Amino acid sequence: MDFSFTDTQLLQRESIVDFARRELNDQVRENDQAGVFPLENWRKCAEMGMISLLTPEAYGGLGEDLVTTVHSLEALSYGCEDSGLVHAIVTQLCCIVLLNLYGSAPQKDKYLARLSSGELIAAQSITEPDAGSDVLSMRTRLEGNGVGWLLSGGKVFISNGPLADLIIVFARCGSGKSAFGEISCFLVEKSAPGYSMGKPLQKMGLRTLQNCEMFFDSVCVTEELQLGKSGHGMFIFNEGIEWERALMTAAHLGTLERILEKSIAYVKTRKQFGKEIGKNQSVSNKIGTMKLNLELGRLILYKMAWLKDQGKRATLEASLGKLFVSESLKSACLDAIQVHGGYGYMQECDLERDLRDSVAATIYSGTSEMQRNIIARMLGI
């Protein structure tokens, strides 16, 4: 088994890290405090090719496989200190994946190139006030009107929502079939009559990422706007969530590596009682655990990505990776603050922002509790 990356992949990683450090880290603290999305940095990432990684070359993309893509996202998150921006890019990539896998030729022609260039911003609209982990309980409905369907309902916590030009909406068909077969998926443009959104939500962390509620008041959607087949929404969701968890896990690992290296640098220079604090086992053990979790997380991530590149399901690996790495990231942030002492608690150190951002990682894309349930189910329990 070959664990090495190609020379091209390694050069690409180096280039992305250099780009992120050089172009994306100004004003991160100020943007976080103000809750401002760095649109100019979004455009820079698009020019760098970060948004077009998974788009086929026929639509102006790089046509990379998932292994190369998660390797690149790791590099971006390692170099870029704005986790909200990275999350926005991951959300865009997830939408591109769904459109590429399930979109019709006219849909791809209309949207893929513009999404991949960053000209259009996309969002997935799934979560509802009464349907978070329990997706099948969604109440947003589709009612036939003779020429298509009328879409009515509300969604919440939608990433990229306030900026979205195109929304991928999941809704219940109400066909009388089983709940699993009642969900369908549609494309809705922000200009669609009957669509509106709430104000950007104020959050504990990931403040540069824009989230909002969405409201659909008898929005007319036709067959031309349907993504995939009628009643296949949950198949689309389940496939998409595996890609999403792989991409999110890669981003979390990049952040984890950055926090690890920051902590190593600090414990080698900070001295107490006449010696570097890293010489104390209580400190060095925390560093060792961070490194252990980083390497274990990578093993799960790249197995997950390899499986998807082979056209195989990675349900178990996606949940294992999402659970382990998100929890490891949150723990690493807490340990890093403890290692840095009083300085780690200060805003100027930026670890407090990393901690606030990391808490959400154990919630979005399926909570840690849901990942444990999925893992148990996959083991036949």
From TrEMBL:
> Which segments constitute the Acyl-CoA dehydrogenase/oxidase C-terminal domain?
231-379
Q: Which cofactor does it need?
A: FAD
Q: Which residues form the Acyl-CoA dehydrogenase/oxidase N-terminal domain?
A: 6-119
Q: Name one GO molecular function term.
A: acyl-CoA dehydrogenase activity
Q: Which UniProt keywords apply?
A: FAD, Flavoprotein, Oxidoreductase
Provide the Acyl-CoA oxidase/dehydrogenase middle domain boundaries: 124-219
InterPro entries assigned: Acyl-CoA_DH_CS, Acyl-CoA_Oxase/DH_mid-dom, Acyl-CoA_Oxase/DH_mid-dom_sf, AcylCo_DH-like_C, AcylCo_DH/oxidase_C, AcylCoA_DH/ox_N, AcylCoA_DH/ox_N_sf, AcylCoA_DH/oxidase_NM_dom_sf
State the family named in the UniProt similarity comment for this chain. Belongs to the acyl-CoA dehydrogenase family.
Describe the protein's quaternary organization and the partners it interacts with: Homotetramer.
UniProt name for this protein:
Butyryl-CoA dehydrogenase
